[in-house]
Write a structure and sequence with these properties.
Layout (H helix, E strand, L loop, with lengths): L6 E6 L6 H12 L10 E6 L4 E4 L5 E4 L11 E4 L16 H7 L7 E4 L4 H6 L7 E2 L6 H7 L4 E2 L5 E4 L2 E4 L2 H16 L1 H11 L26 H8 L8 H7 L4 H12 L3 H19 L4 H8 L4 H11 L4 H9 L8
Parallel strand pairs: 1-2, 1-5, 5-6, 6-10, 7-8
Antiparallel strand pairs: 3-4, 9-10
Helix pairs in contact: 1-5, 5-6, 7-8, 8-9, 10-11, 10-13, 11-12
């Protein structure tokens, strides 16, 4: 991987913050390193005034930085706070919060975790963009800000440099998505493995809303998923996967949806895409060969999949992460 300048992430916190959401950002971005072990991100926490900031627990956090550090931010993350769960008013922002947000450069990437999206909406950042928040608050966000395209059925959104996520756990998916976009699947997957979390859940995956608890003695799809991951380059059918878990195709499909939020073929396509991305980032195999190794069959099929999901060709994707011209055509 080519040398990359350290990217500054600033987390802007408010009184009543949820400590886990702050920890997510520091843990994930803070453990992203390049091939030489160099940090890819610096992560700072700031508040409208430096000092002790109350949380929604029985402990507070001591924030060393004031809002001035926002002026040099490459990415700003706004976690939720207790005040977000009270009834909201359109455009309501405390004066110190509004003043802090005004320090953020126009070039900075903006992101929110959970109901931090209300801050971005009140500041006008989400106008004309697709966004989400915790499913319990989506209706309120949509009613207060009709100019925002609120999607209650996704884990996170990414619309032209402004990102939002659903509940606390979706903040993990959001941060991994940003790392993946910045530095590729290999770096993001390494961060995920170190944190022992799934390396990739698509933003379009449904939020887990009022799901029934699966009984402990129910079978799972783990065997089918393990089987598929070991054979991504082979043609695989629903029948093949169902056989591995000793289920009917119908039962497998239902269980897959319950456990992953995706159909078996959606999940398989995502795994193949991730594998292809890693091959493009790390090796020099032609696109047709990468397509065969990842199970897409032909380069044409993989190019179409890349354009539909990522909006770029495999060649453009490789150039982004390799820094030079690739040999194959788009």
């Amino acid at each position: 991987m080519r040398g990359v300048a350290v990217h500054r992430v600033v987390v802007y916190v408010r009184p009543g913050l949820l400590p886990m959401e702050l920890g997510i950002v520091h843990r994930l971005f803070g453990t992203a390193v390049d091939d030489a072990g160099r940090q890819l991100y610096s992560v700072l926490t700031c508040a409208s005034e430096p000092g002790e900031v109350a949380t929604d627990t029985d402990f507070s956090v001591n924030v060393a930085h004031g809002p001035d550090v926002l002026e040099a931010a490459d990415t700003v993350v706004v976690p939720a706070a207790v005040e977000d769960y009270a009834p909201q008013e359109r455009g309501r922002l405390a004066a110190p919060v509004r003043a802090a947000l005004e320090r953020i450069p126009a070039t900075a990437r903006m992101a929110s975790i959970c109901t931090g999206s209300f801050v971005l909406a009140a500041a006008g950042v989400l106008a004309g963009r697709r966004a989400t928040t915790h499913w319990k608050s989506c209706a309120e966000l949509a009613a207060l800000y009709p100019e925002v395209d609120v999607d209650p059925d996704v884990l996170y959104t990414d619309d032209r440099g402004v990102l939002t996520s659903a509940g606390v756990a979706a903040g993990i998916d959001l941060c991994l998505h940003m790392i993946r976009d910045d530095h590729g699947a290999e770096v993001a997957n390494t961060v995920a493995r170190g944190t022992v979390v799934p390396p990739h859940r698509e933003g379009g995956q449904a939020q887990y809303i009022d799901r029934p608890i699966r009984q402990a003695d129910d079978s799972t799809t783990a065997a089918a998923r393990t089987y598929a991951l070991q054979r991504l380059g082979e043609p695989l059918t629903l029948e093949d996967l169902a056989r591995q878990s000793a289920m009917s195709v119908r039962t497998l499909s239902r269980r897959f949806r319950q456990e992953t939020g995706e159909t078996p073929m959606q999940w398989l396509g995502r795994q193949r895409l991730d594998y292809a991305r890693r091959l493009l980032e790390r090796g020099d195999e032609p696109v047709d060969r990468v397509a065969a190794l990842a199970g897409f069959g032909t380069g044409t099929a993989m190019r179409q999949h890349f354009r539909e999901v990522l909006g770029v060709s495999p060649r453009a994707y490789r150039n982004t992460f390799r820094g030079g011209a690739s040999l194959e055509s788009t």
